[in-house]
Write a structure and sequence with these properties.
single chain, 162 residues, alpha+beta, Endonuclease, Chain A, 4-stranded mixed sheet, 4 strands
């Protein structure tokens, strides 16, 4: 059961921003301090990326863990009520994100995702962003997150299953 009335919940949700959020402003500030110059919310690119670094052919999306379903993150909770509403909504968001990222990569862009929870360690985020922008990729070390790609056998990662 929701602890807020329907009108109170509606007002709270109305205040949730999609652009110029606090996490997005922090990432922009960090990139600027690192000497990178960028454009914001280019509507002519798939998904209107939060940050576009044309010189480096890189786009950055700053994702909230809750809304974009950060895998394994404690902030990616699912509300207990109205699951029939929330679950399809989350699924559409994840599918839309994947489609936009795939299209950007097809167009030659390096796609970097910054999760809201990563802002807790700004030094690590700075290292990852600088590496991602200057050298391509997502900024993670090769073996840091051994997640199998769709075409790879799971046995490659040591669980013995295919």
């Amino acid at each position: 059961m929701d602890t807020f009335s329907k009108s109170e919940r509606s007002e709270i949700m109305r205040r949730v921003r999609s652009k110029d959020t606090s996490p997005e402003r922090k990432v922009r500030s960090l990139l600027h301090r690192l000497g990178f110059r960028f454009r914001l919310h280019k509507k002519d690119l798939p998904g209107a990326p939060d940050i576009v670094l044309p010189k480096y052919d890189t786009v950055v999306f700053v994702h909230g863990c809750f809304w974009h379903r950060h895998p394994g993150c404690s902030r990616a909770t699912t509300p207990a009520t109205r699951r029939e509403y929330w679950l399809p909504k989350f699924e559409r968001t994840v599918q839309r994100d994947a489609a936009n990222q795939a299209e950007l990569r097809r167009l030659g862009w390096n796609v970097v995702i910054v999760w809201e929870c990563e802002l807790r360690d700004m030094e690590e985020l700075e290292r990852r962003l600088e590496n991602a922008v200057r050298h391509g990729g997502d900024g993670y070390e090769q073996d840091e997150f051994p997640i199998p790609m769709a075409a790879e056998a799971r046995a490659v990662y040591g669980d013995g299953e295919n």
